[in-house]
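Two proteins were folded this term; both appear here.
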Amino acid sequence: MIETLIRNTLIADLSLTALVVQRIYPISLPQNPIYPALAYTRISTFGRELHHAGAAKVAEARFQLSCFGNDPSQAKSVATAARRALHGKTLSGGGEKIFWCQAVNEIDLWDTDLGYQVALDLIVAYVES
C-alpha cells in the first residue's frame, strides 16, 4: 500500500522525526496524544488511467497530513518538514512506486479538542498494486 511508503518516507526524514519522533499515525491521533504529532489519511483516489489494452494501473490520490503542535509555530514546523519530505519526490519501496508527490493545499486550523493543526494536502501519482 502506498500509505506504508508514505509513512516510511516520513519516518526516514530526520528533520521531521526530530520534531515528532515516531508519532506518525494512520487516519487519526490516539487518545491523549503527545505533541508534536502527525496523522495521515487518504482523502480520495481519482484519475485511474486507461489505455487501449485496459487499465494502466496508474492512479492519483489525495492525502491529507494533519500536523499538530502545542502552538501554531510547532504545527507549522511539522507541516514544513513533512512537505519537504514528500513534495516533488519520486518514491519506491516495498514493491510500491510513487511517480510524484505534489503539495497542493495548506490550511491552519484550531480545534478545542486537538489544538493547533496545519492540514497539508498532497496529490500522489502512483502504480496501483
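Next, the second protein.
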Amino acid sequence: MFNHSISLIYQHFFTIITFKSLKSTILNATDFNRAMAERLGTTQAEASSQIESLVEIMKKAFEERDSITLTRFGVFSVRKVEPRRGYSPVLKKYVIFPPKQVLDFHPSDSLKEKVKNIGIE
C-alpha cells in the first residue's frame, strides 16, 4: 500500500515531531516539509508531494472507516458518536445532538513515554 518514499516519511515523522516539541516551537506545514526534505534528501516540493500522498491515503482509509496503526506512534480510527441530549448555551435549552462520525487517536505507549519524558518548563 505504501510506496518506499511514503514509508520513509512515516519513519521520520515521529523523530521530527519529537525534535520540534523539545524546542517548544509550533510545527507548521512549512517547517514539517523542510524537515522531511532534509531527512529524505529531496526538495521541499517533492517532500510536500509525498506528504500529501500519505494524507490522501489516510483520508481514503477514514472514509472507508478503516483504522490506521502507525507503529511507535499510535492508532487513528473513526467511530460513531450516538445522538445525545445536551444543553445549548446559544438556545438556552436542552437539545438532542445528532449522531456523527469522529476521528479518534490513541497514542502508542512509546509516544506517551516520549511526551512524558519531555518535561515541563
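The domain at 4-118 is CATH 4.10.520.10 (HU Protein; Chain A). The chain is about 50% helix and 25% strand. These notes refer to the second protein only.
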